[in-house]
């Protein structure tokens, strides 16, 4: 596989951009191959500057449920661009977007647009703290909510130990109000609430965690979480940045029949452009400036190009509910194919799949939380990843991420991927 041009481009990028990338995982640090530099994408495929073609299962880390360059999205973007790229003034399409989100997700009565998932969760925390007049935030080990200071807390902290910063530069004083709890562990949650439940502003959770592979919370856990937060007057924040409009048009929350107080979105609602949003009950959202005292703003928030791509994507999903069945069916075929390969080759793997999100771990253990996720053999994963890339299959270079199946993945793509999986796993023996 020739990656010469990409190699040169990476060397040059490294001179001007820290690590040559604008987001760390793109640097392929955990594998020995250089990152291909991407030139273009179409449907389920991406093409690098060396001319290699890949079946793409990263999909820009989740947003591209309709694939690359969906004709309707591109058309909407062109039309929007011709009318002006940014005004910093109200536009009708912002209301259209807000209505689409509120109609789709019943727990969201009002919504504020921001520019990324990080901004959405960060703003949701501020709002929750202001609304409850409490300070502590509980998050779960192995859940990722972006890189704002109070959420960058070391995964692995003991349940009742106050957080320590996960990155230099995050003041200890800020994260002392963040508690890390064990995912899917009701006892741990109860202990935390027993100890400091009267000062917990909110619990934030990925309903299906997509940042330690793919790990769904159990129904019992989610129900217990809703009950305990309700009982203590703490808010429940669902981080649906990844799962929103992916696992269902109505969010992962509809699969659990649990109604959070605040929901965070990003990725799919931007159709591939930089977007985030947070929304919830009117009474809570009305605390945001200019209606209320909680300040939060953004020069490019509700940007017309981002709204055009997002609204077009959401409308396609709304008008074509069969998309969800279709992508789940394809993901299921991948799951079954991978399982059959692993068993015929005698390789111990665990596959977690929820809808069109899927992760293959190199472990014999069931993966239900952070501790079980990290039993995966990441050396094996790195080798597997490289072999898959050589076979023309573009996966995330990290074990602890999901594959994302889009509506544009074809039957041939799925067959090719299952075959590639066989060859790649065979190299591990
Ligand atoms: N929450 C979740 C669940 C995420 O998966 C991510 C990003 N992968 C974020 C928040 C942060 O979003 P962004 O990268 O847009 O800031």
From TrEMBL:
Cofactor(s) named in the record: pyridoxal 5'-phosphate
GO molecular function, one term: transaminase activity
Catalytic activity: (S)-4-amino-5-oxopentanoate = 5-aminolevulinate
CC per GO annotation: cytoplasm
Pathway annotation from the record: Porphyrin-containing compound metabolism; protoporphyrin-IX biosynthesis; 5-aminolevulinate from L-glutamyl-tRNA(Glu): step 2/2
Subcellular localization(s) per the UniProt record: Cytoplasm
Broad enzyme group: isomerase
HAMAP family with a match to the protein in the record: HemL_aminotrans_3 (MF_00375)
Protein name: Glutamate-1-semialdehyde 2,1-aminomutase
């Amino acid at each position: 596989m020739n990656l010469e041009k990409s190699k040169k481009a990476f060397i040059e990028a490294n001179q001007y951009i820290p690590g040559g990338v604008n987001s760390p995982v793109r640097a392929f640090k955990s594998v020995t191959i250089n990152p291909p530099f991407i030139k273009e994408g179409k449907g389920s495929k991406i093409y690098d500057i060396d001319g290699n073609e890949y079946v793409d299962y990263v999909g820009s880390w989740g947003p591209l449920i309709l694939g690359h360059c969906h004709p309707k999205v591109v058309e909407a973007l062109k039309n929007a661009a011709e009318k002006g790229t940014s005004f910093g003034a109200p536009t009708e399409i912002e209301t259209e977007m807000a209505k689409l989100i509120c109609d789709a997700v019943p727990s969201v009565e009002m919504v504020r647009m921001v520019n990324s998932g990080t901004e959405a969760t960060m703003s949701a925390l501020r709002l929750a703290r202001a609304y409850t007049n409490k300070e502590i935030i509980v998050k779960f080990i192995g859940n990722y909510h972006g890189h704002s200071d109070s959420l960058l807390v070391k995964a692995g902290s003991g349940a009742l130990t106050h957080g320590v910063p996960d990155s230099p530069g995050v003041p200890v004083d800020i994260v002392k109000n963040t508690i890390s709890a064990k995912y899917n562990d009701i006892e741990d949650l109860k202990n935390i609430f027993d100890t400091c439940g009267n000062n917990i502003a909110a619990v934030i959770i990925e309903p299906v965690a997509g940042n330690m592979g793919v790990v769904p919370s159990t129904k019992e856990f989610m129900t217990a979480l809703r009950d305990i937060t309700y009982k203590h007057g703490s808010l429940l924040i669902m981080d649906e940045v990844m799962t929103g409009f992916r696992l269902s048009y109505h969010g992962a929350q509809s699969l659990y029949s649990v109604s959070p107080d605040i929901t965070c979105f990003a990725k799919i609602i931007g159709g591939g452009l930089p977007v985030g949003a947070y929304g919830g009950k009117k009474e809570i959202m009305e605390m945001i400036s200019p209606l209320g005292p909680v300040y939060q703003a953004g020069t490019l928030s509700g940007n017309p190009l981002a709204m055009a791509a997002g609204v077009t994507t959401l409308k396609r999903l709304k008008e074509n509910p069969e998309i969800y069945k279709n992508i789940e069916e394809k993901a299921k075929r991948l799951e079954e194919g991978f399982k059959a390969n692993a068993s015929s080759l005698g390789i111990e793997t665990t596959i977690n799949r929820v809808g069109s999100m899927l992760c293959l771990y190199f472990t014999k253990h069931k993966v239900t939380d952070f501790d079980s996720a990290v039993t995966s053999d990441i050396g094996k994963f790195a080798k597997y990843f490289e072999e898959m890339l050589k076979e023309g299959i573009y996966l995330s270079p990290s074990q602890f991420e999901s594959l994302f199946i889009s509506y544009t993945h074809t039957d041939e793509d799925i067959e090719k991927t299952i075959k590639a999986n066989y060859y790649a796993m065979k190299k591990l023996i």
